[in-house]
Every structure is written in C-alpha cells, then in structure tokens.
Amino acid sequence: MQKEIIVKIDLFILTIIPIIGALLVFSIGGIKKHLKLLLTFSGAYLLSIVFLHILPEIYHSDAKNIGLLILLGFFIQVLLDYFSRGIEHGHAHIHENTSLSGVLIGLYLHAFLEGIPLGMADLTHLNENHSFLLGIVLHKLPIAIVLTSLLINQYKNNKKVIVQIIIFAIMSPLGFIYGYYFHESFPLRSEQIMAVVVGIFIHVGTTIIFESSDTHSINFAKLIAIILGFVLSVFLIAL
After folding, report:
1. What are 162-168's contacts with CB under 8 Å, separation 24+?
2. Which range of residues forms the domain containing residue 70?
3. What is the mean pLDDT of residues 90-103?
C-alpha cells in the first residue's frame, strides 16, 4: 500500500511540474529570460546523478551491453533533436514558418522515454532517495516554460496552448506507468533501459551546459550554478 502511495505521488509531481511552468509563463510572462541559470543548474545536476549514482549502479549489475545502450540513447536524443529543434535543452532553434508538429512529437517522445526508467527505478533501489525524480523535475520545469512561450507565440490561441501543455504534462507519467506496470513484457532489463536514458541525459546535460549562454563560455554565475547542481546531487545521493 505504501509503495502505491509513493507511485501516485511521483505521478502527480511529474504531471504538475509542466503545468506549473506553463502557469508561470501565463502569470509572469517574462520569466523566460531568467531560465539560463536554472538550465545550467539542471544540466549539471543531471550529469552528476548519471556519473555518481546511475552509471555505477547499472555497471555493477550483470546486465549486458550497457555501454552500447548508452551510445544508443545518445543517438536517439540526436535523432529526437532533429525533430524537436533542441527544445529539450531549454531552447528551440525554430523559425517563424517552422511547423511545430515535429517539435512536439520529438519532445513528447523524449518525455515518454525518460518516464519509463523512472517507473522501473521505483521497483528497484535506483530511486530510493528520489534523486532521479528530482532530475526529471528540474529538467521538465524550464522545458515547460520554453514550450509554453513558444506555443503562445506560434498559436496566438490559449486553448491550443493549454491542450499541448496537458499532452506534454502526461507523457512522462504515461512512460512511468508503462515502465512500472508492464516492465515484465520488456525485452530489456531495467538496468538496460536505464542505460539508454543515461545516454539521453548525457547528451541533454552536456548540451545544456555548453549552450545555456550565447557565447558558449563559463561566466561566474554559470560556474556557481554548475557547482550547486553538483553539490545538490552529492548531498542527495549521500542521504
């Protein structure tokens, strides 16, 4: 019973965070300009939990082809970027006449995929301190803000914006449910699925850190954000 309550709480958090991001845009409007440091912080945190927590765990298991699956995940994110135009990194290289269909499909697939191992992690010790869940949350909040701003500019119709945000909000929970309840039907073990998502996170995390400033350079504020992301992950993993 306690496990089911935790799962419901995780699903609620995954669903509500994108909605909060959208509400921030509707209520504050100019919040997008303050995202760069949050993006840098989230990218550093993602990379840190990958190298300090997830990679040691999956390599410690007897699952095969971990390295190959990490490369596969990296390539999958490269492919998704082709459609999403990089919106998973907290920005999007989109021109005014660009169709949003590919962007949305790429982003929704990304959100679904990252939810699958999160659901599977709740069946193992990989998510005992919920450091992985926090990584997803820190990742999804700025994406939701950027996506909402983009949709408002493109659609000029709040109803369409709300529909797309709701779809985005439920994609990771759907992946979570798929991973949690149907993991026995997977051809891969949970550690192997996690390896694929590690590849995705390595691509996203490194890109966020190097693309979160226009000059691709490290200023003092950005350096502090990176250090704070590393420190938070170390603290949570040590709990």
Report:
1. 162/22, 164/104, 165/18, 165/19, 165/22, 166/19, 167/104, 167/108, 168/18, 168/104, 168/107, 168/108, 168/111, 168/144
2. 2-29+37-238
3. 65
